[in-house]
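Q: My labmate handed me this sequence with no annotations at all. I'd like to see what the chain might look like in three dimensions before we decide whether it's worth expressing. Could you predict it?
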Amino acid sequence: MRRLHVDRLTVMMFIGAVAFIAAYSAMVALSNRYYVVSAPPSSVYSASPAGFKVYYTYLWELGLKPGILKSFETLPAHATLIIAGPFQKSPSAGEAQAIGRWVRGGGRLVTVGADARELLDPIGLGGSPNTGDASETLRPLFPGAYADGVTALQPGPDRLLLDESAWVAHFKDFGGQVLVSRKVDAGEVVWLSGPFALSNAGIGRADNGRLSVLLAAAGGRGVYFDEFHHGYVEEPGYWDRLPAGGRSAVLLLAAALAIALIGWSRRIGPVIEPLHEAEARGGAYIGQLAELYRKAGARAEALSALEYGLTRALARTHGTLDAGLARHPDARDALTASRALREAGAIPEDRFLSTARRLSRARQEVEGQNG
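A: Here is what I predict for the chain of 371 residues:
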């Protein structure tokens, strides 16, 4: 059974690559856990009183596993998208139209704060903000999806002034609406008047935490927070811009290159051992063998050994035996005479010695000149 050869350099490079990847992953994990980010208000990265980091972490602890949206080129299908102001990057008209199409197709949009008008006005769902005559604590107007377990809400001072014939108000006071919702074709839009109830400073007040879960979990959908408009932009790379056929072509090309690399590489797989070649018998060996035969009285065998040595020398020097015999008539004659003597039977001492010397001289001539 052949022993598998493992190239030491390949093993060392593999171990180094694994160690580098492990170190990089550990650094990323530590930075995500301990690095403090200075983020804008209402961002899930912000640990300030106005940030949403506690809200985001709370949903994770409950098993909802919210995602973070950093690009508006592709919106998550059949999901809840939470977009909270104030915005660091104002939505464009194209983004507002994309949100409108997404909601009508079945998306669920939860907007927070007065900045939501920048997304809702272009699709005919806007309203006016108001901050006057705000009550500190509100109770739900009626039982419903956003009143389950919520008996007291502390939303902060922000209020909305909306047409109540189009929107359903779940919480309101004399200053205006606090939480409203409406169906839009197959989707839904929910608008919370201000971010305080979901912020790090406000989520622990009254039943604000309960409302925060209802806003995210209604409908049993995946939950995403918009960080694109807080300045965390992740531009799609070339891979994301490729259509499905283009991606398949790239994968096939990569597979072809990998196969070619494996085929060309000298280090992949066990080492191919060189073919074993029997060592050619040298002139000294042939001469010693013939001498042993002569001393033992085996004259025919001694001549046969000398003939073998001469034929090997002819073939090795000229490529083939016939070519060698054609170039060396003396060698051909010596071989013919030796074979005739062996076939005659008993070999006299003098005839043996003369024939043996003739074969040896012929070999010396063949090996002493190259062509």
